[in-house]
Amino acid sequence: MDVVARLEALAAAPKVWRCISIFSDGKVRTHDQPTKAMAEGHATRQRRFLDKVVATVDGKNITLDIVEVQYIGNDWAVAAEHLGCTVAELKAYA
After folding, report:
1. Which residues of 64-93 are buried (b: 16+ CB within 10 A; e: fewer)?
2. Highest taxon of the source (predicted)?
3. Which residues contact 6 (CB under 8 A, 6 or more apart)?
4. Is the CB of residue 57 less than 8 Å from the CB of residue 25?
């Protein structure tokens, strides 16, 4: 499988992992990814900002308080089909 086809398959794959960021003002941002490794990578980059001021709104400092990764899907077969691999290969990569 060439790189372009693999990227297209990955973009079309169901997003079964979610990185959740919760801020001190109560806002919640989510970033969904098809693999755990991708979600963990996003979470790692977000964790650099934990307990740091990320914005100031109306004179209040907003900090990033929580970053978590959660599994939101349950169909390995569908994800493997979109990626063009077997379920075992996908689980080994995730």
Report:
1. beebebeeeeeeeeebbbbbebeeeebeee
2. Bacteria
3. 83, 84
4. yes
Measured between alpha carbons, how far is 91 from 28 in angstroms, rounded to an integer? 28
| 43-88 pLDDT per residue, tens | 999 999 999 999 999 999 999 999 999 988 767 776 776 677 887 8
Structure tokens at 12: 């079309």
Q: What percent of the chain has pLDDT over 90?
A: 54
Cα–Cα dist 81/33, whole Å? 16
> How long, in residues, is the chain?
94
Whole-Å CA distances, 62 to 21, 22, 54, 69:
13, 10, 6, 21
> CA 17 to CA 37: how far, in whole Å?
9
How many whole angstroms separate alpha carbon 47 and alpha carbon 50? 5
Q: Where are the domains of the chain?
A: 3-93
